[in-house]
User: What shape does this take?
Amino acid sequence: MRAPKLLFLPLILVFHLLQAQHVEQDEHSIARQWNEIMLQTIREDFARPPVQARNLFHTSVAMYDAWAVYDDEAETYLLGKTVGQFSCPFKGIPKPKDIEAARKETISYAMYRMLTARFSASPKAVGAHMRFRNKMKALGYDPTNRNIDYENGSPAALGNYIGECIIGLGFQDGSNEQKNYMIQYYEPVNPPLPIVKPGDSALVDPNRWQPLKLPEAFDQNGHPIPGTQKFQSPEWGLVHPFALKASYMKTYTRDGRKYNVYLDPGPMPLLDTLTGGGSSDHYKWNFMLVPAWGAHLDPSDSVMWDISPASIGNVQQYPATLDELRTFYNFDSGKDPGLGHTVNPHTGKPYEPQIVPRGDYTRVLTQFWADGPKSETPPGHWYAILNYVNDKPELVKKFNGKGEVLDDLEWDVKAYFALGGALHDAAITAWGIKGWYDGVRPITAVRYMSDLGQSSNKKLPRYHPAGIPLVPGKIEMVKKGDPLAGPKGENINKIKLYTWRGPLTVKDTATQVAGVGWILADHWWPYQLKTFVTPPFAGYISGHSTYSRAGAEALTLITGDAYFPGGVGEFHVKANSNFLRVEKGPSVDVTLQWATYRDASDQCSLSRIWGGIHPPFDDIPGRMAGAKIGIEAFGLAKNYFYKDRDRDGYFSFEDCDDSNSSVHPGAENPELDCDKQGK
Assistant: This one.
C-alpha cells in the first residue's frame, strides 16, 4: 500500500472514527456501495441523460478525490485545484492512523453531501434522502454532521468539504443547475406534432427538430411529464468538460446566442423541399431505412439469426462518407458488416451458436439499450456494465492490464473516475451538436415526406421532388382495392409502409403483439411506448452512439483488454417476461452476448435504428466522436493517477494522422496507440 500524500501539521492530532455497534458489512468497496445507491437514485429521478452523466462524473470525482488525498502518488482533480472558474482550496490534513477507515468515511460524507443536494428536487426525493441517511447510519456515521473544518484531521469534515466543493463547482460549470437545468434561450422552429393525428402537415422545416404533443406523456423512468415536449439541455455544449481540448471546440451563434460544439461533424444531410437536390437523396435513404428496419420486429417471420459472438460484432471498418453508409447498413435484412469472432481468446474455443428469431433479438436489444434495463439512463447503463465487469471472477484488477493488482477500492475509484470523465464529455459533445444542428427525428421526417407523396416517378400520382422514394415490398402507394384504401377510397395514392404496426394496435402489452404489416405512412410510429414515442431533443448526433463508444473505449483501456472478462458479456431475457413493455415478448429466451466492449457499443448503436429513434447518419458521427472522447478521457485520468505521467505515453488524437483512429478491437492488451482499425 502506498504511503499517504498529506501535509503533516506541527501538532499531532488524534482523532477517532464514529462507529456503530452493527456496521453494515458489504462485500463491495465503499465506492461501489455508493455508486449502486447513485444508480438506484437515477432510476427514480427524471430521465435526463446529460444531467445524469454530469452527476455520475461529479460523484466519481468526489470519491476519487476522497481516496487520492490519502495517496502519495495520485493527484486530486478538484481538491486543492481550480477547475474551470471554480477553486477548491486545500490546506492539508494530518496523517490518519487508519488510512482505509479514513477513506471510507471521507468518501461517505462526500457522497452524502453531494447526493442530498443534487437530488433535492427529484420526484422521489424523500425516498432518496431516506436511502442516503440509512446508508450513513448503517455505516456508523452521523448524517447530521455538517462540519467542514477538516484541518484537525476529521475524515468526516474533509468529506463534507469535498462535497461542498463539488456542489460549488456545479453552480459555475455552465449547466444552469441553479434553475434546474432549464432551457436558457433555445426555441424550436417547428410547431408541435400531435402524434395521434395522421401526417405532419404543419411542419415548417423538415431539417429541424420538432417537439411532439402527446395526450399522455411519461419519461423513460415512468414519471409524468408535459404532453408537449421541450428540448432537453440544448445548450449543454456550454458545460465545462473533463478532457475535451479547447482546440476541439467551435462556437456558433444563432439569434445572437452562443452554442459551443466540440468535435464538430458538420451538418447532417438536408432535404431540399423545392428541387430534391443537394443531399436530399442521402436524407431520404437514411430515413427510409428506419421504417424498413421496423419490418424486422416480427418474431413470426421465420427469419432466424445466430446472435452469438460467432456471428455478431467485430466490425473491421466504419463508413467515412454518406455513400459508404449504404453498404455498411443492410437495408433489406438488417445488421452491419461485422464478421463475428472465430474463437474466444480467453478459452481458445469457438463461441457457441445461439439461434433465435430475428424479431426477438431486435426487439430485446432495442429495449435493453433504450435507457438501460433498469432505466438508469445511457451513461448510468455503462456504469452498470462496469459493475457487472467488476464482479466477473475472470477480471484481474490491474489498471490497463499492467502492474500490481489493485484492491477493490482503488480499482473502483479509478475506473469510475475515468469512465465518468468519458461519459461527461460524451454528453457535452453530443448535446452541443444536438443543440446547434437541431436535427430532425424519424417520426417527423417519415411522416413529412410521405405527406408530400412519392419522389420516384413523375408520371405516377402525388409526385413531389421531396417525397419519399418507393421501394417494392417496403414503401408503396395505396391502390384501389387495397385494404388500406378506406371505405370511400380516401387513402388511394397515399404512401404505405411495410413495418411494425405501432403501439396503438396493442391494448394489452402482456398478451398482445403488434406485429408487422402494411400501414399508412402518416400513421407510422417508432418502436416505443405510446406515452414516450421519441426522446425530447434533437436527433443529430446519436447520444447513445456517443455514450456507448466512449464507454466501450474507456472500459477497454481501464481493463487492458478489448474483451469482456472470460471473453463474453451477457444479459439474459426470459420468454414472455414483459421485458419489452411495448408488447408481449420475447417469444423465446434471448441472451444478448458481446465478445468485446466495442461489440456491445455497436449493438447499442444499431438498436436505436430498430427502435425508430435514429437514422444511420446520426449514428456514425456519434461513434467516431465517442472513440476520441473515451480514449482521451482515459489518458487524462491516467495522468492524475500516476506520478510518472508519461511512463506509458500520454495519448492525444492530435498525435494521429487518422482522426478516426481507435483502439484495435482484437487487442488483448490495448495501448494508447493510433491504428487504422477505427476508420
In short: The radius of gyration is 26 Å. The CA atoms of residues 283 and 463 lie 17 Å apart. Residues 30-179 form a domain with the Vanadium-containing Chloroperoxidase; domain 1 fold (CATH 1.20.144.10). The chain has a mean pLDDT of 91.
